[in-house]
Amino acid sequence: MTAAPRRFVILAARRSGSNLLCSLLGSHPEVRCHHELFNPNGIFTVLDERDEATPADALAARDRDPLGFLDHIWGDARGARAIGFKMTPEQAPEVLAHVLADAGIAKIVLRRQNALRRLVSERIADITGRWEAYDDASPLARPRIHVEAGELAEHVARVDAFHAGIETALLRSGQASLSLRYECLFDPDEQARLLAFLGLPPHPLRTRSVHQNPEPLDQLVENAPALRRALAGTPLAHVFD
Fewest 10 Å CB contacts: which of 23, 194, 234, 241? Predict the structure, then answer.
């Protein structure tokens, strides 16, 4: 009898590298990794299986019965040894509670160390409408972003609250999880740890995801000098390092 595939979910704040991680996992021949299945604007499946847009009736069916939709996803592993998807804050609370409570679903918790880069990337994506970019993406003009110190602090608090909720739920149920950092996703040792956590054989992981905002923060933040001064002596002073 063929063993059931290992189910997993990637939990991450927006712009924390979850598309990169999905792309890396999707390059493993025994992984079926969807992206944001519960995004309000679309059902973002495995890259090579997407239509240009999600039909309205498919979105409506998912939203009528999100857990039934998820059961269908789990049942469509297509021979993969591991199948999963990613979730970000405020997406389908019913589904998030369900996957957190199910000890049979492996939890991968992804964080991005630099909060300012995370916020700037989120703001740029909000303005441009481009949340994903892969190896066939066309160049895109990006705006410079004005960031106030208080806005950054509020952003950090929201992301911290999201992760604290995950940690509390897993601690209460005694579940283990795998913590990864965006900045280490290309580290071979971290990739080996990820594959071992999912019970998968070693395999080189490659990405189709493109780093969208690689410039120094001084070039991306419109008021960088003023923000540096405002953050000096605070726990966030390091974000320009």
Answer: 241
Nearest by Cα to 115 from 32, 223, 16, 231: 16
Length of the chain: 241
Tokens of residue 226, six digits: 């003023």
The H-assigned helical ranges of the chain are 18-26, 56-64, 66-74, 93-101, 115-128, 149-173, 188-197, 217-220, 224-231
User: CB–CB of 218/224 below 8 Å?
Assistant: yes
pLDDT greater at residue 45 or residue 135? 45
Tell me: the pLDDT tens digits for 100-151? 999 999 999 999 999 999 999 999 999 999 888 887 667 778 899 999 999 9
- CB within 8 A of 35, min separation 6: which ones? 18, 19, 22, 44, 45, 46, 47, 85, 86, 132
Local structure of 74: helix, strand or coil: helix
Q: Which residues of 15-48 are buried (b: 16+ CB within 10 A; e: fewer)?
A: bbbbbbbbbbbbebebbbbbbbbbbeebbbbbbe
Label residue 79 left, alpha or beta by phi (over 0 means left) and psi (-120 to 50 means alpha): left
The set of residues, in sequence order, having a beta carbon less than 8 Å from that of 174 and lying 6+ positions away, is none
Report residue 106 as tokens: 């492996």
- Predicted TM-score of the model (pTM): 0.94
Express each pLDDT in 163-204 by its tens digit: 999 999 999 999 999 999 999 999 999 999 999 999 999 999
Half-sphere exposure of 34 (CA within 13 A, CB side): 24
Using alpha carbons, select from 97, 114, 92, 143 the residue that is nearest to residue 15.
114
